[in-house]
User: Fold this.
Amino acid sequence: MNITEFLTGLQAHHDKAVVHTDELHGQIEDLTGALAETEVRLTELATVRKVIAELAPTDDGGELDPPDPPDPTTAYQAIMNAFNQHPDQAFRVRELHELLGIPTDDPAMNVTRSRLGRLTRQGFVAQPGRGRYQKRT
Assistant:
């Protein structure tokens, strides 16, 4: 095999990897969007449940007292507060978690990545580099 054949084969592998990378980025965007929509739906369902629970009487004539589900809005607000306190700083997800005192395990950080993706699409946050997020100016 001569150098030209080797370089042609190498370029073909590179091209395949680029296509695969683009496909994976598309899947990530689709999943991030689906996760954000599902989180919104969960919030809506929690609100409906809370309203119904307040209106439904219990056996003793009182009202139901369901446990309050975690409010994703609070998480979004905490993230935005961190960006507002450090408007010129770009954060990685782990740095943001450490600043906010949120666990740095993978599932928790994936939820935050999803939230940051949503905030980016809504125009509140910019992504100055891969994996870095900053308040949009």
Remarks:
- Residues 66-70 have pLDDT under 50 and may be disordered.
- Residues 90 and 129 are 9 Å apart (CA to CA).
- Strands lie at 125-129, 132-135.
- Helices lie at 3-55, 72-85, 93-100, 106-121.
